[in-house]
Amino acid sequence: MEGSLMGYNFLGSSGLKVSNICLGTLTFGEHKEGRPGNLNETAAHAMMDRFAELGGNFLDTADMYQRGESEEIVGTWLQKQDREKFVVATKVFLQMDPNNHNSVGLGRKHIMHGVEQSLKRLQTDYIDLYYTHIWDNATPVEQTLRTLNDLVRAGKVRHIGVSNVTGWQLQKIVEHVKLMGLESVVCLQQQYSLFTRETEYELLDVCMNEGIAFLPWSPLKGGLLSGKFKRDMAGPGDPRASRIGWASEKPETRQAESHPCWDHFNNDRTWNLLEAMERMGKEHGKTVAQVALRWLLQRPTVSAVIIGATKISQLEDNIGASTGWELTQEQV
C-alpha cells in the first residue's frame, strides 16, 4: 500500500495478509455497560479512518463489545469503504440476551443465531475471521467445530480462530479438526505481553508446531507498558494508576474486577523492566509502548498485535512499532 507505515504478515496458513497491527474495537460504543472513555460512532469512525490511512487492514471486534454496539459502529464504517480491502474479525460465546438461557456458549443453536446477528450489525455478507471467544465446558468440541465448518461451507465465514484457551484445549481442537476433516483453525488470540508470559509455557509451542498464527491482546497490559507509569508515582490514588491491571489473566476475574491491584505491580520487577525498556527505546528513538509492541512482533508465530486506543495519538504511536526497525537479539 503506497505510503503505508505498516508491516504485513500472513495470518497463519490462511493465505490472508494482514497488517501486523490489528485495531481492536473494545473501546467503540457508549453502552451503559461499556468502559469509561469509550468512543462514540463519530470518534470511532475517525479512528478507523486514520488506521486505514496508515495502512491498517485488520479490525477486531466481538458481539459482546457494548452489547453489539461495537459491531454496529464497524458496520456503518464499512459501508463507506471497499469491503474487500479489510479483514474483519469478530467473536461468539458470551451472553447477548440475559433473558434467554440459550443466548450463550458454543452450541450449534447459539453460534448459528450469533453469526446471523453479527452479520446484520456489521452490514456485511461474510466475516473474514470468526473466533470462539472462550472455551465452553458445556458443549462437546466436536459440535462446535462442525458448526463452524458449516458456516465456512455456507460462505458466511471465511476462516476460524479461537481465543482464551489453555494449551491442552488448543491441542484438542487441532486434533479434532484433523480427525474429522474439518476447516483448520488458523489463529489463536490470547493475552500476551512482557507482563503476561504464561502463554509461553505451552500455547506458543502448539502454535509453532501446528502452523497457527498468534495474536496477542492487551499487549500493553492495560496501560502498564505504555510508558506513563514511573517508579516514584504516588500510588493507587494517582489518576494515572487508576486502571493498572484491568486486563486480568483469567476471563472470569476480568469480568469481576472493578478495582485493579496496584500492589501486584508496584515492585522492583515492574520498575526495572520499564526502566530497561525506556533505555532501549531511547537507543532506537522509540517510546516504551513501541518497544513493548515490537518485542511481541518479534516473537514466534505472531502475525499481528491487537491494540486498543481512545485517542488517535495513541494509535499513531502504536503503529510506530510496526515496521522499519527491530530490537536487537540482546534486547529481546
What does this structure look like?
There is one protein chain. The protein has one domain: TIM Barrel. 36% of the residues lie in helices and 14% in strands. By secondary structure, the protein is α/β, with parallel strands linked by helices. The chain has eleven helices and ten strands. The radius of gyration is 19 Å and the shape is globular. The two termini are 29 Å apart. Keywords: Oxidoreductase.
Return the structural class. Answer: alpha/beta
Number of helices: 11
Main sheet: strand order: 9-8-7-6-5-4-3-10
Radius of gyration computed on alpha carbons: 19 Å
What's the architecture in CATH terms?
A: Alpha-Beta Barrel
CATH superfamily descriptor? NADP-dependent oxidoreductase domain
State the low-pLDDT regions, or none.
245-260
Mean pLDDT: 91
Number of domains: 1
Q: How helical, in percent, are the residues?
A: 25-40%
Tell me the total number of β-strands. 10
The major sheet is characterized as: 8 strands, parallel
Strand content range: 5-15%
The run of helices and strands is: EEEHEHEHEHEHEHEHHHHEH
Distance between the termini: 29 Å
Annotated CATH topology: TIM Barrel
InterPro entries: AKR (IPR020471), AKR_Detox_Biosynth (IPR050523), NAD(P)_OxRdtase_dom_sf (IPR036812), NADP_OxRdtase_dom (IPR023210)
GO molecular function: oxidoreductase activity
Biased composition (Basic and acidic residues): 249-259
Family: Belongs to the aldo/keto reductase family. Aldo/keto reductase 2 subfamily.
